[in-house]
Design brief:
By secondary structure, the protein is mainly α. It has 13 helices and no strands. It has helices spanning 2-23, 29-51, 61-84, 87-94, 99-107, 114-130, 142-163, 169-196, 207-213, 215-238, 241-248, 251-263, 269-287. Helix 1 (2-23) crosses helix 12 (251-263), helix 3 (61-84) runs antiparallel to helix 7 (142-163) and helix 6 (114-130) runs parallel beside helix 11. It starts with a helix and ends with a helix.
Length: 288
């Protein structure tokens, strides 16, 4: 069950990243975050009300609120790092956030078997290579590296926090709702500040009409991201966090394959090799 839930997380996160990447080509990134997560809040609020999940409220929701605060900061740092580039360095470094939940699992006493340790190593290397690392070219700005490492830590922290936010299915609905409300509040505040400083909140081409036409895609991105957090939480509850975290971090492979399938982008040799290693690591983890 852990492997299935974690692999579902990778699929959902990979597709959400692909969709979000396409949307941010026309719409400001903060607007994409706020609108997509706002739709998720509306859906989760309905689910929470229908299931009576409010009865599950407790101190563990602070983990969900913390995840909701850390997530937008990590995303903004990642977007800023991508702007400074090069993407071939930033993207693979961003996937190193898996180290955070791995470390949490080890500190809590989890000890994977030898085969699983091998799978973890192979899968992590595969994920990094699947991002298409750039081994040659112009030097990378120190600020880009620092921002990327901040983003990676944030992404990993969200995984660790959401895994601790609930112990039941209805509690998970409530935790995800709290996380997304916090996301929207934090993202909305950042959007307000950026607009006050002269940035645009709407696309230059089409304005509000363009945002309305993109609502189905925005809804998909927001709900896929929510579902990914949910399946990761289930994976972490049903088995070792060390295994769940690595398998859930295979999403760069999904994003690369989606770009290949929908945009006809060619995979570089290093990306194809990374995808193969990631799959090999998955097999080792599942059989270990």
């Amino acid at each position: 069950m852990t492997a299935l839930f974690a692999l579902a997380t990778s699929l959902l996160w990979g597709l959400a990243d692909f969709g979000g990447g396409l949307l941010t080509r026309r719409t400001p990134a903060l607007t994409v975050v706020v609108v997509s997560q706002g739709i998720a809040v509306a859906v989760l609020g309905t689910v929470v009300a229908a299931t009576g999940a409010w009865s599950e409220a407790g101190p563990q929701l602070w983990f969900a609120a913390a995840a909701g605060l850390v997530g937008p900061v990590a995303m903004l740092a990642f977007y800023k790092a991508l702007a400074l580039g090069p993407m071939g360095v930033v993207s693979p470094l961003g996937s190193l956030g898996v180290v955070v939940p791995l470390g949490v699992g080890l500190v809590l006493g989890e000890r994977p078997g030898l085969l699983q340790f091998a799978g973890i190593g192979v899968a992590v290397v595969g994920v990094v290579l699947a991002g298409g690392p750039q081994f040659r070219g112009a030097p990378v700005q120190r600020q880009a590296v620092l921002l990327t490492l901040l983003a990676a830590f944030g992404f990993g922290a969200v995984m660790a926090l959401i895994g601790e936010a609930s112990t039941t299915v209805t509690g998970l609905f409530l935790a995800l709702f709290v996380q997304r409300v916090t996301n929207v509040v934090a993202g909305g505040a950042a959007l307000f500040v950026s607009v006050r400083r002269g940035a645009r909140a709407l696309p230059e081409d089409g304005g509000l009409r363009a945002v309305r036409s993109a609502l189905p895609a925005l809804a998909f991105v927001g709900l896929a991201d929510v579902a990914a957090n949910g399946t990761y939480s289930m994976a972490a509850q049903h088995g070792p966090v060390t295994v769940a975290a690595v398998l859930a971090s295979l999403y760069p492979v999904v994003t690369a394959l989606a770009a290949r399938g929908f945009l006809s982008e060619r995979l570089r040799g290093v990306q194809a090799a990374g995808a193969g290693l990631a799959l090999l690591g998955t097999v080792l983890l599942a059989t270990g």
